[in-house]
Design brief:
The structure is a single chain. The protein is mainly alpha-helical and about 325 residues long. It has two domains: about 1-215, no CATH class; about 215-329, no CATH class. It has helices spanning about 1-30, 40-55, 60-80, 85-105, 110-135, 140-155, 165-180, 190-210, 225-240, 255-260, 270-285, 290-315. Helix 1 runs antiparallel to helix 2, helix 3 (about 60-80) runs antiparallel to helix 8 (about 190-210) and helix 11 packs antiparallel against helix 12. It is globular and about 55 Å long. Mean pLDDT is about 90; it is low at about 320-329.
């Protein structure tokens, strides 16, 4: 299984470059040179499904990957013709419900009320993840950094025999070549479909963790801390400014840093925050606190002050408090 998975991941890395150039050529030929190719992330869903199939993982995991892939194709049309926000939310919610349905044996042990509550909760989680990830796909390499950090944390703390190992390696085999292409401005984007695939993968990890806490390392949640708080803070600003919350905005920390400074320095807050959270969580555990509590405490104590420190020192005291009408599409 290890050999076949390694060969599959190598093929993924090579083919990502090839397919990326073909995708870009076809997009620009059909839609014009001015339109940056988007929606390339839909291919990630098939990479994940292929890796799960080749590695011979559990039926539940393969079934969930099939659901994500099928929905990703539908979501890809949002990159082509722009689906309504309501339909995107519905798709995301439905996929969350189907993911948990693939993992849980509902017979006997669950009341109808509990089944409804679990499905509702996981559907809501997938909608939240989809929006967080989507808002972090607003600058070159930013979403790729988020994905690489998450996959790296999974691999570092995951037992090598876990069925998630080949899936995570295949994810990196896709996203690293994509990042090389994405590092050139206006070359190719993962798009809304790519954001949806990664968000659904996060939801799948959460469901897998709650079913078996040994399947996914709890440290994998650390890279989500900064994007989640950033989206929450910007949401508060937009509510105050009475914006349409279903539209994209340009108030997020990485976007403001990207506007003010050159190069890829706007990627550093994600990396630094994740590493600081890990250091503090490790220290809390060494002091005798439980692992779960240590992670939550570290992400809270580090992320919030680090986030506002970045806004204060790099964007100015009033960053985020001004009206953002000029930043909306």
């Amino acid at each position: 299984m290890e050999t076949s998975s390694a060969l599959f991941s190598f093929c993924v890395a090579v083919l990502t470059f090839v397919v990326g150039f073909v995708y870009r050529w076809a997009w620009r030929r059909l839609r014009g040179l001015e339109d940056t190719p988007s929606g390339f992330g839909v291919i990630l869903s098939f990479v994940l499904l292929g890796s799960a199939t080749v590695a011979g993982v559990s039926f539940e995991l393969v079934a969930a990957m099939i659901v994500i892939s099928a929905a990703a194709v539908s979501y890809w049309f949002d990159d082509i013709i722009e689906l309504s926000a309501q339909l995107r939310i519905l798709i995301s919610f439905a996929v969350g419900v189907l993911i948990v349905s693939a993992f849980v044996n509902w017979s006997g042990a669950y009341s109808l009320l509990l089944i409804f509550a679990i499905c509702l909760a996981v559907g809501f989680v997938n909608v939240v993840f989809t929006n967080i990830v989507n808002f972090y796909d607003g600058a070159d390499l930013n979403l790729a950094t988020f994905i690489v950090l998450t996959a790296s944390f999974v691999l570092v703390f995951l037992p090598a025999h876990s069925e998630w190992w080949p899936i995570t390696v295949a994810c990196l085999a896709f996203i690293i070549p994509f990042a090389v292409m994405n590092s050139c401005p206006k070359t190719i984007y993962l798009g809304d479909s790519g954001s949806f695939v990664f968000a659904s993968l996060l939801t799948l990890m959460v469901v897998s963790f709650f079913k078996d806490s040994q399947s996914i390392p709890s440290e994998a949640i650390i890279p989500v801390a900064l994007p989640a708080f950033d989206v929450f803070f910007v949401l508060l600003i937009r509510i105050r400014e009475k914006h349409n919350l279903l539209t994209r905005n340009y108030l997020h920390l990485y976007q403001r840093l990207n506007q003010r400074y050159t190069s890829f320095g706007y990627l550093l807050p994600q990396v630094i925050n994740a590493l600081l959270c890990l250091v503090f969580a490790t220290a809390f555990q060494a002091a005798g606190l439980g692992k779960g509590f240590s992670l939550i405490l570290a992400m809270t104590m580090v992320t919030i002050p680090f986030y506002f420190a970045c806004r204060w020192f790099f964007l100015g005291k009033k960053a985020g408090r001004e009206s953002s009408s000029g930043y909306l599409k």
